[in-house]
Specification:
- By secondary structure, this protein is of the alpha+beta class.
- It is about 30% helix and about 25% strand.
- It has helices at about 90-105, 140-145, 150-165, 200-215, 225-245, and strands at about 10-15, 20-25, 45, 50-60, 60-65, 80-85, 110-120, 125-130, 135-140, 170, 180, 185-190, 195.
- Strands 1, 2, 3, 4, 5, 6, 7 and 8 form an eight-stranded antiparallel β-sheet that branches. A three-stranded antiparallel β-sheet has the order 9-11-12. The protein has a two-stranded antiparallel ribbon with strand order 10-13.
- A hairpin with a 4-residue loop joins strand 11 and strand 12 (about 185-190).
- Helix 3 (about 150-165) runs parallel beside helix 5.
- The longest helix has 19 residues, at about 225-245.
- It is elongated, with a radius of gyration of 18 Å.
């Protein structure tokens, strides 16, 4: 543990002429830390987010492999390349380190298994492997069928508040990135461009508004009063957890 009492996860680095891999040595032996780890399987892992993702058989069990891709208009010109500014500034390494930090704080995010980047001229391409959350479905899937009961929405709100209390900012908090498993636990995934910042301030409400827009875009509003009660329950859970004694 460090001076704050937070356990720091271990990681190891494998460097190659064309790039590097950071990995959890409890999952990936040094000899197995090769770019072949990041070859995708055949099954896509959902429709949310910009990155291309696949369910794969990871070195520690079922996993999700994500290849970083750009969004917006720039993606038409440069689909999956980023400007290289140093190893620890790559998208994959930054997300790997952030996920380790969040897990060390006891927050419900998938375990990071390995991250890689491969350079090409002044740019690089990147990939990340995380453990798959067992028996989980995204919040967006429930909108397509029937909304969860208010108690589940309160749990979603409480979970988001736990991240906000820790200063964990999710750059794209939407219904695809919130997972509900069959035990009722809520998980937050896809922390690309996420970071830790000072708790409090407008960024927390901006996060919630982004989630609300995502749910309405998916058609949550057609559930009428059920949707209004669901969102109120989420806000109640969020406020209660945010204001609870530390």
């Amino acid at each position: 543990m460090n001076e704050t009492g937070i356990r720091r996860s271990r990681s190891q680095l494998a460097e190659f002429p064309e790039g590097a891999i950071v990995f959890d040595p409890a999952c990936v032996p040094q000899a197995a830390a090769r770019f072949s780890l990041f070859e995708p399987g055949l099954r896509r892992a959902g429709s949310g987010g910009r990155g291309a993702a696949w369910f794969v058989a990871g070195p520690c069990g079922p996993a999700v492999l994500r290849h970083y891709r750009r969004g917006g208009l720039v993606a038409r010109l440069v689909e999956d390349r980023y400007l290289y500014l140093g190893r620890e500034h790559t998208r994959s390494f930054r997300e790997f380190r952030l996920l380790q930090d969040l897990r060390d704080r006891g927050l419900p995010v998938p375990a990071p298994v390995a991250a890689a980047f491969r350079r090409s001229g002044a740019g690089y391409r990147a990939d990340l492997i995380t453990a798959r959350i067992a028996r989980a479905h995204s919040l967006s899937e429930f909108v397509d069928a029937d909304l969860p009961p208010p108690g589940q929405w309160q749990q979603v709100g409480r979970t988001i508040a736990r991240f906000h209390r820790a200063g964990a900012w999710h750059a794209d908090l939407n219904a695809h990135n919130l997972l509900l498993d069959d035990s009722g636990a809520v998980w937050l995934v896809d922390f690309d461009r996420g970071r830790l910042r000072r708790p409090g301030g407008g960024w927390q409400m901006a996060n919630l508004r982004r989630l609300q827009r995502s749910l309405l875009k998916l058609g949550a509003g057609r559930h009428g009063r059920q949707w209004a009660l669901a969102w109120d329950a989420l806000l109640d859970g969020w406020r209660g957890q945010l204001e609870a004694p530390a």
